[in-house]
Amino acid sequence: MEPKDTIPDGPAEPPVQVEAQVQAVEPSAPAPVVAPATEPVVEPAPAPVAESGAPATPGKPRPRGRTTLLIAAAAVLGIAGGTAVGYGVQADRAPTPLPALSQPNLAYPAKALPADKVPDPLPVSQDRQRKTEGDLRELLVSKPSGWNDRKQLALDDGWMSVDTYARDFQYEDRAFEYLLESDIRRVAAATWTKGRYRTANVWLVQFRSGTRAGAVDHAEEQLLYMTGDDDVVDSDLLKGSSNGRCYVYKADLKSGYMPIYRARAVVQRGDIMADINMFDTRPISKKDIRTLAERQLERL
User: Does the reported pTM lie above 0.70?
Assistant: First the structure.
């Protein structure tokens, strides 16, 4: 039998190599930490990038309205430049000669038309100016039956001055100024009496033909005034007129005096406004004033 401490065949590894392997398996000790000599360098964060790819400046808002101002300035410069170019082009052009003011083709014939070829003048029904350009007193309604002419110092052979007509209004100075501004021309008037107290005044107020319709304005002013007058108790339209009306007033009663009744009619035709008034100590019917006013309208 072989002894137990017999070493098997083959070379045996030296013990030094075993120790080296054991040392290789054991972890090595950590290296000592050395503090840096200077502060660490911190790299700046990358700047934010806009949608277009260019870096945007943080904290600075974009100015507003700059594009609008640039467009407006460009438009003004464009207009000014175009105007300057237009004037320059026009200045370089030769002036266009104007036609002569006197031309032989526009002259009237040397000889008048023969008598048989002269056109007849328009009838009065078509030429209203022929009627109103004549004697205005001839357009006054004729005196009604049973009435008498009354001589009045305010009349001068059937004519009434403008200042005398203005005195019939409550505010004489304002009425006189208004009539002059409305280009009043003349006033024809007639006055009659019937019985002891009844009186009728007829005034034809004519205005000049121009830019202002004086007769229409004056009639409308009077109609508007009487429409709001509390003393008016009855009114009616005049037949044959679009704006003529007649009015009946309540009695003016004063202690110690006889009552005064009044009726008035206003109508306009063309450049003439007819103003008719009746006064009496007895009531005046609406038929009386309306009949006289419609007769005057027929004359116009």
Answer: no
